[in-house]
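Lab notebook, design round three. We kept the backbone fixed and only want residue identities now. Task for the bench partner: fill in a sequence for the structure below.
Input C-alpha cells:
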C-alpha cells in the first residue's frame, strides 16, 4: 500500500535507489559502483554544480537568454500592466531615534559626571602634594592596584619601568603612556560658564610652553596633549625639583580626555560661522552702504538737474565712483558664493546648499539691477552751466513777476489807507489807550544797518569761518553732503557779514 511505503529523502542514487546524506557521498558511490557509464557521472556532476549555484544565488543568465529578453528602454506592450498601487511601507525613524538618543544620553551622562567631578576637584584644591592626593581620592574613589594586572588600554603588563597611575576623573588604573595631562586653567574653563572664546577668562599666566601639556588647536578650542616625560621617574624628579610647577595639571586617562575634548569641540561649533555666512554678511554690509549712497546721490542729482548750487558737481561724481566700486564688490562676493565648494572633491556641497548659493547670487543681481544700475547720469560741466543759466533766467522772470504783484498790492493798500484815515479819529477816541501803528516798507521801516564795531584783535568771525571750513572738509570726507550744503550757506552768510562790517568800518574811519 502507498501508506506502508518508505519515503526516501536526501541524495538518492537513481540506479540502485541508495540514500546518501551529502552530494559528495553520492558522487563517490557512482565512481565506485556505477563507473561503467561516464556520461551519467558527468551529467550528475553538472546537475550538482547547477543546484549549488542556484542555492547560492550565483546562477548566471546565459547570453542567449539575455538577448531573448526585451530591452528595458523599450518595454513590450503586452507587459505594460498600467499604474500599480504602492506596496506596504515602514518607517524606521522611530527606531533610529531610539538608538541614537540612548547613545547620546549615555555620552552626555558620562560627560556630565566627569564635569561634576572636575568641579569638585577644583573646589578647595590643596597646594601640598600629599593633601592633594588625599583630596583627589576622597572625591573620586580609586580602583585597587592589586586587582589590575594589565593596562586596560594597551594591554601591557606593569613592572618597575611601567608603573601604575590612576585617572583623577574615573579612578581607573592606566600606564603612563595611556594617560594625558589636563591643566588647571583648562579645567576651570571647562567647568565655568564663561564662553570658550572669551579672552577675558584667560589669565596672563595661560601662555605657557608646550611642556605645560596644552596645545592650541584653533580659536577657542584646546586640545589635550600627553606629557613629554619618558617615565614615572622623570615625574618624581620633576615633583622634587619643582613642586609648584608640577601641580598645575590633573592626570586623566585617554577615555575621559576624549569625552572632554568632544564636548569642547561641540561648544566650539556654536561659535564658528560657515564661510558662506561670512561672505554674506560682508555682502550685506556693502549693500546697506550702497543704498545709503544711492539715496544721497539721487538727492544730489535732482538738485543739480534743476541747476541749483546746493551741492557740488565734483562731490556727486566722487559719490558715483564709490557706488560703482561697491557694486563691483557685491558682484565679486556673490560670484564667490555661487561657486563656493564646487571644486571640493571630498566634501562637495549638497543640493540644498547649491540652491542657497544660487539664490544669494540671484538676489545680488536683482539688487545691482534695481538699485545701482538705475542711477541717473550726471550732467557735464557745460551742461551744468547751461542748467544754472536757465535757472537764473527763471528766477529773474519770477522776481520781476513778484515785483509787479507787489506794486499792484502797494497801490491797493494806498487806496485802502485813504479810506481808513476818515475813521482813524473816531477809533482813536474809542480806544484811547490803544494806538495802531502800521509799519511797512513804504514808511521806511527795516532792520538797522548799524553794526557794532569790534576791535580787530578780538574778531570772532574769522575764527568761525575757519572752523566752518574744517567742518565742511570733514563732512565731505564722510559723504554727508546735506551738512556740507548747510555749512557752505552759513559760511557765505558769515563772509557777507564780515564784508559789510569792513565796509562800515572803512566808511566810519
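Proposed sequence:
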Amino acid at each position: 500500500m502507498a501508506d506502508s511505503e518508505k519515503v526516501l529523502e536526501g541524495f538518492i542514487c537513481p540506479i540502485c535507489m541508495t540514500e546518501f546524506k551529502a552530494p559528495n557521498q553520492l558522487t563517490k558511490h557512482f565512481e565506485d559502483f556505477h563507473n561503467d557509464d561516464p556520461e551519467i557521472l558527468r551529467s550528475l556532476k553538472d546537475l550538482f554544480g547547477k543546484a549549488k549555484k542556484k542555492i547560492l544565488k550565483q546562477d548566471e543568465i546565459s547570453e542567449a537568454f539575455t538577448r531573448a529578453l526585451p530591452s528595458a528602454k523599450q518595454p513590450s506592450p503586452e507587459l505594460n500592466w498600467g499604474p500599480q498601487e504602492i506596496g506596504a511601507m515602514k518607517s524606521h525613524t522611530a527606531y533610529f531615534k531610539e538608538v541614537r538618543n540612548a547613545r547620546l544620553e549615555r555620552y552626555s551622562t558620562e560627560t556630565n559626571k566627569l564635569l561634576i567631578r572636575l568641579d569638585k576637584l577644583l573646589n578647595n584644591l590643596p597646594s601640598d602634594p600629599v593633601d592633594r592626593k588625599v583630596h583627589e581620592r576622597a572625591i573620586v574613589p580609586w580602583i585597587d592596584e592589586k586587582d589590575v594586572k594589565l593596562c586596560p588600554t594597551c594591554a601591557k603588563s606593569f613592572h618597575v619601568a611601567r608603573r601604575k597611575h590612576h585617572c583623577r576623573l574615573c579612578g581607573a588604573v592606566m600606564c603612563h603612556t595611556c594617560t594625558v595631562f589636563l591643566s588647571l586653567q583648562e579645567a576651570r574653563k571647562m567647568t565655568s560658564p564663561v564662553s570658550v572664546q572669551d579672552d577675558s577668562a584667560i589669565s596672563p599666566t595661560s601662555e605657557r610652553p608646550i611642556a605645560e601639556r596644552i596645545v592650541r588647536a584653533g580659536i577657542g578650542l584646546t586640545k589635550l596633549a600627553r606629557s613629554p616625560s619618558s617615565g614615572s621617574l622623570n615625574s618624581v624628579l620633576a615633583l622634587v625639583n619643582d613642586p609648584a610647577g608640577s601641580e598645575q595639571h590633573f592626570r586623566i586617562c585617554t577615555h575621559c580626555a576624549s569625552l572632554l575634548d568632544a564636548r569642547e569641540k561641540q561648544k566650539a561649533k556654536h561659535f564658528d560661522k560657515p564661510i558662506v555666512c561670512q561672505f554674506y554678511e560682508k555682502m550685506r554690509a556693502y549693500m546697506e552702504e550702497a543704498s545709503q549712497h544711492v539715496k544721497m546721490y539721487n538727492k544730489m542729482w535732482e538738485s543739480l538737474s534743476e541747476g541749483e548750487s546746493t551741492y557740488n558737481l565734483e562731490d556727486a561724481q566722487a559719490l558715483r565712483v564709490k557706488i560703482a566700486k561697491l557694486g563691483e564688490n557685491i558682484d565679486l562676493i556673490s560670484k564667490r558664493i555661487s561657486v563656493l565648494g564646487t571644486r571640493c572633491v571630498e566634501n562637495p556641497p549638497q543640493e540644498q546648499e547649491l540652491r542657497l548659493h544660487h539664490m544669494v547670487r540671484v538676489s545680488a543681481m536683482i539688487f545691482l539691477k534695481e538699485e545701482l544700475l538705475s542711477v541717473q547720469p550726471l550732467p557735464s560741466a557745460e551742461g551744468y552751466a547751461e542748467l544754472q543759466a536757465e535757472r537764473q533766467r527763471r528766477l529773474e522772470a519770477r522776481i520781476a513777476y513778484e515785483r509787479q504783484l507787489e506794486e499792484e498790492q502797494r497801490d491797493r493798500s494806498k487806496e485802502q489807507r485813504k479810506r481808513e484815515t476818515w475813521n482813524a479819529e473816531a477809533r482813536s477816541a474809542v480806544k484811547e489807550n490803544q494806538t495802531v501803528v502800521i509799519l511797512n516798507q513804504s514808511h521806511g521801516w527795516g532792520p538797522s544797518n548799524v553794526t557794532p564795531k569790534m576791535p580787530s584783535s578780538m574778531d570772532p568771525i574769522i575764527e568761525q569761518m575757519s572752523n566752518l571750513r574744517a567742518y565742511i572738509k570733514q563732512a565731505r570726507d564722510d559723504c554727508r553732503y546735506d551738512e556740507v550744503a548747510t555749512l557752505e550757506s552759513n559760511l557765505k552768510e558769515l563772509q557777507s557779514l564780515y564784508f559789510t562790517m569792513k565796509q562800515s568800518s572803512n566808511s566810519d574811519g
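Keep this in mind before ordering anything: The beta strands are 11-12, 19-20, 165-166, 173-174, 179-183, 214-218, 221-224, 249-253.
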